[in-house]
Amino acid sequence: MKVSIITVTYNSAATLADTLRSVQQQDHPDIEHVLVDGGSKDDTVGIIKSFPHVTKWVSEKDNGLYDAINKGIGMAGGDIVGILNSDDFFPSNDVVSKIVRAFDENSVDAVFGDIAFVRPVNLDKVIRHYSSRKFTPKRFAYGYMPAHPSFYVRKKCYDELGLYQTDYTIAADYELLMRFLYRHGIPYFYMPEIVVYMRTTSTRCLNISSLR
């Protein structure tokens, strides 16, 4: 099963190599890494070019973070699509394999897990944990959602149910998950694993396209 991982970048040179390396080192044999850059002014594009596993990439102006993600989904050729931010990384080399196994064994359209936050000065030390374990679709009404960076979904769901709504500045991920999991009720599986490490006090707010 082919997995497309989409990473959106903008002036991400300080953190991007960790993100790219964590994808490059995954043991799943069929991954395409799609990079969508918003026309960075630093060495982001040079770093992208230095990682030969990156199968598809583009560097051009876009209309914000969610427009860039949608562009990446349009470029994706995998059966499953996930998003890995340009300052995030996988905690181990078998994360994607475990996600694919969860799809295969549970016959679902979406898989999500947990995320952990680490400080930029010590990427091995987890300081906060966000668990998706108690999620049910009814909990959207209370502002509780699965950890979006851990969310992997079959490409056909984007084709049939739509992409991220670009008129949302910061909440299009919430709207999309609610649309997929609550309104349309696609079958999902919670994987009790940390899927992504996220930096705290990181360059995230500087990397999002909507602030360009």
Give a description of the structure.
This protein has 212 residues and is α/β, with parallel strands linked by helices. The chain has one domain: Spore Coat Polysaccharide Biosynthesis Protein SpsA, Chain A (Alpha-Beta Complex), CATH 3.90.550. It contains 7 helices and 9 strands; from the N terminus they run βαβαβαββαβββααβα. Strands 1, 2, 3, 4, 5, 6, 7, 8 and 9 form a 9-stranded mixed beta sheet that branches. A hairpin with a 2-residue loop joins strand 6 (110-119) and strand 7. The longest helix is centred in the middle third of the chain and has 12 residues, at 95-106. It starts with a strand and ends in a 5-residue tail after the last helix.
Short description:
The protein is an alpha/beta fold and about 210 residues long.
Question: What's the helix and strand layout?
Answer:
Blueprint (H helix, E strand, L loop, with lengths): L2 E7 L6 H9 L6 E7 L6 H6 L4 E6 L5 H11 L4 E4 L4 E2 L5 H12 L3 E10 L2 E9 L21 E3 H7 L10 H12 L4 E12 L4 H4 L5
Parallel strand pairs: 1-2, 1-4, 2-3, 6-9
Antiparallel strand pairs: 4-8, 5-9, 6-7, 6-8
Name given to the CATH homologous superfamily: Spore Coat Polysaccharide Biosynthesis Protein SpsA, Chain A
Question: How much strand?
Answer: 25-35%
Assembly level: single chain
**Chain-averaged pLDDT:** 93
Shape: globular
Helix content: 25-40%
Corresponding CATH architecture: Alpha-Beta Complex
- Structural class, from helix and strand content? alpha/beta
Given this structure, which CATH class is correct?
Alpha Beta
| Biggest pleated-sheet summary | 9 strands, mixed
Number of helices: 7
**Radius of gyration of CA atoms, rounded to a whole number:** 16 Å
Low-confidence stretches: 202-212
Compute the number of strand runs: 9
Number of domains: 1
Distance from first to last alpha carbon: 36 Å
What are the secondary-structure elements, in order, as H or E?
A: EHEHEHEEHEEEHHEH
CATH T-level topology = Spore Coat Polysaccharide Biosynthesis Protein SpsA, Chain A
